[in-house]
Amino acid sequence: MMEINENPANDAFDVPWKDILEGYFPEFLAFFLPVAHEGIDWERGFEFLDKELSRITRDSQIGDRRMDKLVKVWRRDGVELWVLIHIEIQGNRQANFTERMYVYQYRAYDLYQVPVVGLAILADEEEGWRPTEFRYDLWGTKQSYQFTSVKLLDYPETDLEKSTNPFAIVTLAHLQAKKTKHRAGDRYQEKRRLIRGLYQSGFNRQQVIDLFRFIDWVLYLPEELDDRLLAEIATFEENQKMPYITSVERIGMRKGHRDGEATILTRQLQRRFGTIPDWANEKLAKAEPPSLEEWSLRILDAQSLDDVFSDKV
Question: What is the phi-psi region of residue 182: left when phi exceeds 0, alpha when psi lies from -120 to 50, beta otherwise?
């Protein structure tokens, strides 16, 4: 049975989640926090506040923040509002997660004096981990911060299949990536089914391409199966007369996938070992996805760069 070499750090999910969120933010809120979507004046647009978020999280010692997003919107009554979003993709509970949400919220309010809405998307596999509040109570002093927490595991697949929101497909793909871990044959079938479904979903060409990119990334397949699936898609598109995913676009996506993995691995190595020497950068630049994934696994136990890149098994 063909197996899939998974990256346990889940870094491979960071890039596609970030891209799809930034590309479809109104749809994101409509799916995960509809009460906010209904209260926002979308005609005034919205703005991602990357510089402001950087200032808020500067010198923070409470964890990784790659997936945090801060977005400026306007309520229908004209009030400026900020939405703080954190996507938690790790497969285990984080002891300081609620503290992290609280710290980001109060720093944002302290620095900019605007209301901040907290939303956490939990894409982990632990059924019982559902953080929604940070609190303490000591000698008459009480502090409580509550935020909305959404668990991907809670969405029934039958409901996701019926939804026309792009994030139903995103959620389905993420759940299937978890469910088919180490089972390449099952993942092939699910990936094939999700991709074929895009053409009957009513999405326009760009939406199909963007959702395909997400599915292609999170439902990673060995090259042999990947090539077989690509051939099926090409035949299907030809029969349907819907040439959305051309071979040129597909090659670009595959290169983007590899480059994204190399970038993430480089950041991990820099965090663990400091400055990366030229010989290691050359290896990273030339490596294919299987090697990048293997090196990502080795970081967990490696004591040096040589341990990561060693040819010894």
Answer: left
